[in-house]
Fold this sequence. Notes:
6-stranded antiparallel beta sheet, binds beta-D-mannopyranose, 48 strands, Immunoglobulin-like, 6-stranded parallel beta sheet, 16 helices, Jelly Rolls, globular, 809 residues, single chain, TIM Barrel, 34% strand, alpha+beta
Amino acid sequence: MITTTLNSGWRLSHLAGAVPEEIRIPETVPATVPGCVHTDLLDSGLIPDPLNGDNEERLAWMWRCDWRYELCFNTPPAATGEHVELVFEGLDTIATITLNDTELGRTDNQFRRYRFDVGHLLLSGENRLVVDFTSALSVAEERERIYGEYPFVNAHPFPMVRKSACSFGWDWGPVTITAGIWRPVRLERWRGTRVRDVRLGVDLEGNTGVARLVAEVERDPEAPPASLAYNVAGATVAAMADTPGISEVVLQARVIDPDVWWPRGYGDQPLYDSVLSLDEAPVWSRRIGFRRMEVDLTPDEIGTPLRLKVNGELVLVKGVNWIPDDVFPTRITRDRYRRALVDAVEANCNTVRVWGGGIYESEDFYDAADEFGLLVWQDFMFACAAYSEDAWLKDSIIPEARQAVARLSGRACLALWCGSNENETAFQDWGWRERLQGRAWGRGYYREILPAIVAELDPTTPYIPSSPFSPDPEAEANNRTDGDTHVWDVWNELDYLHYADQAPRFASEFGYGGPMAYSTLTAAVHDEPLRVGGAQLAVHQKAEEGFAKLRRGLDAHFSEPADFRHWHWATQLNQARAFDFGVRHFRSLQPHCAGSLIWQLNDCWPVISWAVVDSAGVRKPAWYALRHAQQDRMLCLEPTGGGRVRLAAVNDLPQPWTARVRIGRGTRHGLEVAWEERRIEVGPRAAAAVELILPEDPDGFLIAEADDARRAVWFVSTDREAGLPGFDADVNVARVAGGYRVDVTARVLLRDVAVIADAELPGAVVDDMLTTLLPGEKASFTVLTDGEATDPQILTTWPVLRSANHLAS
Ligand code: BMA
């Protein structure tokens, strides 16, 4: 088979829809494929940056426009007996495709690959390929008029079109409603026999690694039989393709005693080359890892826990939810995917959930996850909506799901498929049952169609119907005894200390909002002066009642911030403390609670959100808190009421842990700390707890530390109630390789010391932060930066050097 890419030379033109007077679009502009209209107009300097200021609203006209992508290309016409196919890996979304004035077809699913037979249409001279896109929003609204309303969250009826839901706007993302050729285009020429598609099942049976490849083969009736060979780790299995037409050929390789793939923290990630050849020419390859994935839903005396098992071992899941890393996903390079997943790895995650309102991610994402040992929980693309089960939608969803499952099948990292994000709980709890009046709403996909597709095409990967879910479809999907749970009453209604009230079996979403880094904020928000009520800041805050919820959190823990910069620090710090508290709490319940996935790792634009890393890649304080809370050995202090505190020791390592915990008691405004030692015996990959008496003094605090676990602190009162001493420390800054080292020696109790330099030294990264220092203790912070501070002393004072003490009056 000969493949010719058709990604360059495209032109874009505007077809229909009102364009504001000040924007003059020439007859055609260069188009980047893969790409979208927004990025093309941006590259041509025709529109302002959609992510800047209040440009979102200014570009709303784009949602309603129709566009044309056009490519003239030369290619030899089809020779006798030659097949030529035009393949679109992804079209976003409502498209009509024409080649040399003949319509090839119409598409309406962003997530599907489309193939067109074009051999009979190719000309010997120039060929003209046209892809016309119609406004997905107009089509969604039109379908709503025809088929009736299906409930959804946010502003636009996204469930009517198979397109990334969040492109219609989300509670952390702007409305863009992109259009364009978002994945590569190519011509495939073949004669005789070809491999049309491949899927893979990889498993571990005892000490034997099994790689079962299913090749979808297409063969001309008169072609001679062809030979297929699948080589795995040096061993080859072969078969003949001798059936005319389309058939499936199974090649099963067995590797005795392979090195086994494990999620990080449980072992290594050996990957073996595997190559499929047709008549000795390689046609497909993949690095594979031998592992067995299981979802264990064995009921216990409390309910039905959700437990992930890899190679027979329970994996205590700690990780993050993932959203598309850019509102224009074609800007996410392979490197950028890797950097974003390094953020997960370095925060001690072992799992990433690809959330159902985004996209099935690119191979680059899963390649990195395979290598890094990050388990992937993969949602199908259904989120926070009811979806019609009638033919007009179902007939598009089935091939979409089949393609997605086949493409990702056999990935070492793929831990489970999940039918939807929140659609079952939405039907039960968000008043949708009444609104739907008996119409089917998607359960047929989640409970029947999708599991059957996974069982058929990717039988070595488990499936769950929704997140959250309960195995019994009649039970409350978001209950706390079965399956997984999304914990959102904290943040939406309650302070983060209420995480301690909950004991789910698997917390697959919980989060707390906070602003993007100051440098990211000031690059996108230009209110003069910057203030919480600012018009542009409001554009970059999409959460329902977001500012009020931030306010509630501040009121519970901090004094009134002195100015915007203090507000920014206080809300970031509060977010960090919320994650620290929540993650430690859920992990301290292991294995009763077998997983914790915070909402969310990343952002798609500069925004106040639950993300721990912002859209510029800056790690927020919450990222450091997550890293601390996800250490393999970790201490957790939380109040249990009645003047008591629970001290839990959490051990994710396979060896038992005798935790010699030094427990200190002091007061915020005092200088002395009284120490005692307690031994806590913790089993392998387990947690154990003891109870401590809380100091009676409202100014008091408890501290717990062990040789192999970072310090945990619990303060009897909030910073608002009890205050903190004014910041007082000896501070030195020194030039070191790659940046600066800031040494801080506390003269008083310093809480949550941080060096945050992104605004003063763009791109600066600090190795650690949020350190609590007792009087006399010293901490060093290393700031890595390519830049040079005109005056390094800026690193020794507010706003770069800061602490909770800077917020307490
Ligand atoms: C859950 C997620 C997202 C949302 C988040 C924060 O509902 O599944 O839909 O962004 O909470 O509200």
